Amino acid sequence: MKKIVPQAERSKAEATSNINRKIEVLRAWATNGIPFLVGKDGLQLLDSKDNKLLDYFPTSLRSFKEWNGTQNSLATQEVLPKIGRVGNDTLAIRPELEKEVVELLKALKLRAELQISAGKYSEIKRLTKEKQALTALLSIRRAEFRTLRVAMNSIENENQRITRKAEIEANEFDRVLASKNAEIERLKLENAELIASSKKVRSLRSVNKNDKQPEQG
Predict the structure, then answer these.
(1) What is the DSSP letter of 44?
(2) How many CB atoms lie within 10 A of CB 104?
(3) How far apart are the first and last CA of the chain?
(4) Looking at the domain assignment, is residue 11 inside a domain?
(5) Is 40 helix (H, G, I), strand (E, B) or coil?
(6) Inside any domain, residue 48
(7) What is the helix (H) or strand (E) element at residue 120, kind and residue range?
(8) How far apart are CA 69 and CA 165, in angstroms?
(9) What would the pLDDT profile of 35-54 be if each residue is shown by its tens digit?
(10) Which residues sit opposite 52 in a β-bridge?
């Protein structure tokens, strides 16, 4: 039978999926680089100083909520997953995701500075910026790992609880089964004794009946 999921639960699940899709995109950009702005002709756009322009990316929680892909160039929109706006309270009631978004926005800012300043900094300064961006991402990964570890511990504890409960129920079943088997054996024995007694009674009645029959001359 197909399980019917209430509309409220479906909406809640979709809202979470939408946030996670946004996070995955931003994580990829923070790791591999924010897309550069591309015109309709497929060429990268430059500012007045011939510097490459970055495509749109959210820089605050508010802009993250509003971001739905339409702010990006057509080239970027073509590779984006389906994303939509997030309600004002939708992210707030998911504190773990909100915290991850905040950290990602910091990492994106560092990545943007690094990309915009490429070629302007010395190699040492460039590597320092790169290290800062990677450190921010590492912090996010560590937070994710801690969250997963807590979840795994919770699952393990629940598994142990269920296992203990199953063992207790199995032991109780064995005890009840043994008791029932003993009861059956006792009843079998009593039944056998009753049958034996019944046979003796019938035998005695038969003997008495024969003794009382008159002799025929």
Answers:
(1) B
(2) 24
(3) 88
(4) yes
(5) coil
(6) yes
(7) none
(8) 50
(9) 999 888 878 888 887 788 99
(10) 46
The two structure tokens encoding residue 108: 């994106």
Q: Above 60 in pLDDT, residue 122?
A: no
In-domain check, residue 199:
no
Q: Which domain holds residue 55?
A: 7-120
φ and ψ at residue 176, rounded to 5 degrees: -65, -40
Rounded mean pLDDT of 184-203? 77
Residues, the chain: 217
Instruction: Report if pTM > 0.85.
Output: no
DSSP string for 88-116 = TTTTTT-HHHHHHHHHHHHHHHHHHHHHH
Could you tell me the CA-to-CA distances from 187 to 196, 198, 201 in Å, in that order? Answer: 14, 16, 21
| Integer Cα distance of 100 and 28 in angstroms | 14
Residue 134 lies in a domain: no
In the block, residue with structure tokens 């339409």: 70
Domain count, the chain: 1
